[in-house]
């Protein structure tokens, strides 16, 4: 627990809080400039205000998932670091998966403060940062070119990027990203199944079966969100499906854990 108190020290709060505050100020500056530019372009002020209100409203529930991620990681990594990672450039699914993988590689057996060491935390923090910086780095070199492609007419863009054997490059990017996350989820699920089949772990519901049961509940919750979206045409549910599924899964984990 001494390490956890250091990870929650005022110095770390000051460093991480300063970065978060800087990014927040930048967001406000760009929001003000965008509003003024909208007025200069002749866009109706009432419409812009409605867009701002709707955006702020629909951002509330998805942010609950981010908050849950901070809470989940704070027990082993302290609060300042997860707060910084998930507030600036991190993503909930990315941060938790990389942190877990880095913790296992560092020999802690997972994200547990009981086995956490300064070296393990350094490894986890480094990988969480290093693996996600490439979007920013690449934008330095090809950001202008990419922006021009987005602004060009769709026909010109398709001609320039080219399509080989009917391959839609934009669609392929979405498919590749989906396949990557399916692979990650499959790897986690397979690890629990492998533990049960090999008999190397504790064969109990809470130790071996609970993660699988929670995964099933989470998948069913996501399926319900998708079904509601398709049936009622509620596209806005996309913004809430991940956070909602997480809340359902965490609630299920608590209740299932107490039942056995």
Question: How does the SSE layout of this entry go?
Answer:
Layout: H1 2-7, H2 10-40, H3 45-58, H4 60-77, H5 80-88, H6 92-105, H7 118-130, H8 134-151, H9 154-161, H10 169-198, H11 205-232, H12 238-259
Shape: globular
Sheet with most strands: none
Please provide the ordered H/E string of secondary-structure elements: HHHHHHHHHHHH
Relative helix content: over 70%
- State the end-to-end distance: 29 Å
Integer-rounded radius of gyration = 22 Å
Number of strands: 0
Return the structural class. Answer: mainly alpha
Number of helices: 12
Task: Detail the poorly predicted runs.
Answer: 163-167, 201-206
| Mean pLDDT rating | 80
**Beta-strand content bin:** under 5%
Description of the structure:
- This protein has helices spanning 2-7, 10-40, 45-58, 60-77, 80-88, 92-105, 118-130, 134-151, 154-161, 169-198, 205-232, 238-259.
- The protein is an all-alpha fold.
- Residues 163-167 and 201-206 have low confidence and may be disordered.
- The longest helix has 31 residues, at 10-40.
- The chain has a domain at 1-132.
- The chain starts with a helix and ends with a helix.
- It is built from twelve helices and no strands.
- Helix 4 runs antiparallel to helix 5 (80-88) and helix 6 packs across helix 7 (118-130).
What is the structure about, briefly put?
The protein is mostly helical and 260 residues long. The protein is built from twelve helices and no strands.
């Amino acid at each position: 627990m001494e390490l956890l108190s250091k990870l929650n020290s005022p110095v770390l709060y000051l460093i991480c809080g300063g970065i978060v505050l800087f990014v927040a100020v930048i967001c406000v500056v760009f929001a003000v400039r965008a509003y003024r530019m909208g007025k200069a372009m002749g866009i109706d002020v009432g419409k812009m205000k409605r867009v701002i209100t709707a955006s702020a409203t629909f951002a509330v529930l998805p942010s609950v998932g981010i908050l849950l991620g901070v809470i989940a990681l704070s027990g082993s990594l302290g609060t300042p670091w997860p707060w910084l990672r998930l507030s600036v450039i991190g993503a909930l699914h990315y941060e938790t998966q990389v942190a877990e993988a880095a913790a296992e590689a560092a020999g802690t057996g997972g994200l547990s403060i009981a086995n956490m060491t300064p070296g393990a935390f350094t490894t986890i923090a480094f990988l969480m940062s290093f693996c996600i910086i490439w979007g920013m780095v690449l934008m330095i070199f090809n950001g202008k070119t990419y922006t021009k492609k987005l602004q060009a007419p769709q026909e010109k863009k398709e001609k320039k990027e080219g399509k080989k054997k009917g391959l839609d490059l934009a669609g392929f990017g979405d498919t590749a990203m989906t396949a990557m996350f399916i692979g990650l989820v499959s790897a986690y699920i397979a690890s629990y199944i492998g533990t049960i089949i090999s008999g190397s772990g504790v064969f109990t519901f809470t130790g071996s079966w609970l993660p699988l049961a929670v995964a099933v509940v989470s998948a069913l919750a996501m399926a319900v969100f998708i079904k509601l979206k398709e049936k009622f045409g509620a596209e806005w549910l996309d913004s809430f499906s991940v956070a909602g599924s997480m809340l359902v899964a965490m609630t299920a984990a608590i209740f299932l854990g107490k039942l056995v």
